[in-house]
Amino acid sequence: MTTKSDIYEQIVQNYMSPTESDTAEAIINDAFHKAADSLQKLIKHPVKPGQASMISLEKLLPNIHKDISKTYYIESEIRGKITGKSFFSIPCAEADMYYSYFSADKICMDDTFKKAIMLETANIVTASAIAHFANVFKIACYAHVPSLEINNTEYLHRKIIYDMNYNNIIFIYKNNFEIQQAPISPSFIFTFDIKFIDLVIQNHEKIINYTLNQQP
After folding, report:
1. CA 49 to CA 32: how far, in whole Å?
2. CA 36/CA 19 separation, integer angstroms
3. Lowest-confidence pick of 11-15, 80-84, 143-147
């Protein structure tokens, strides 16, 4: 059976040339690298981003009904000339190790403290990524105040399906960060509507020149 995300992937394939698709993916990967750099500066520990790519909802969450583990999800709405959302997440089982980068005193780590750390982390890494989009496209865009939820992957599944049905979300990009020498693997997801690809197509040559100028 053809799913809605399959249809969206077909739209993308028909809408973009292979070169434009590669350019879009390069922009996303650069944004994730900016976010990883910001996270590394925040926790003063090496952070390695993976290779991001556009994926379907089914590929994003293949075992949705089997995964009951709790995770911190911090959602930020992207506003301005780009419309979409970001989801920064850390499994609750890994959270105590992450908190230790901010305080060695576990007594101080009440729920308010933990929530503040997660929100500030998401705020910093998301802002870094979106600033990259603004610089590449020469547009105004920003992340709205983030919100935090502790839930399982079904929560994220429902959120993205809702946005696909009602907010015209088409593109899903995911990256996993690895905090070196620590059992912590935050995930970062961006979802976008068609405006993102419109900007890639309209500014394709400028983006290539911008990317070349940013290389060391």
Report:
1. 7
2. 26
3. 11-15
Contact between 9 and 103 under an 8 Å Cβ cutoff? The reply is no
Identify the CA nearest to 70 among candidates 51, 52, 91, 54: 91
pLDDT at 95: 85
Alpha-carbon span 84 to 99, nearest angstrom: 28
CA gap 51, 82 in Å, rounded: 22
Name 169's bridge partners: none
- Which string of DSSP letters, residue by residue, matches 107-148? GG--HHHHHHHHHHHHHHHHHHHHHHHHHHHT--EEEPPPEE
Longest dimension (CA), the chain: 55
pLDDT value of residue 67:
53
- The model carries a pTM of 0.83
Q: For residue 47, what is the enclosing H or E element?
A: strand 47-49
Residue 206 has a pLDDT of 67
Read off the pLDDT of residues 162-208 as tens digits, 9 standing for 90 and up: 887 777 777 788 888 988 878 888 888 898 888 888 888 887 766 66
| Closest alpha carbon to 72 in 42, 49, 92, 58 | 92
Q: CA angle, corner 57, sides to 83 and 189, nearest 5? A: 50
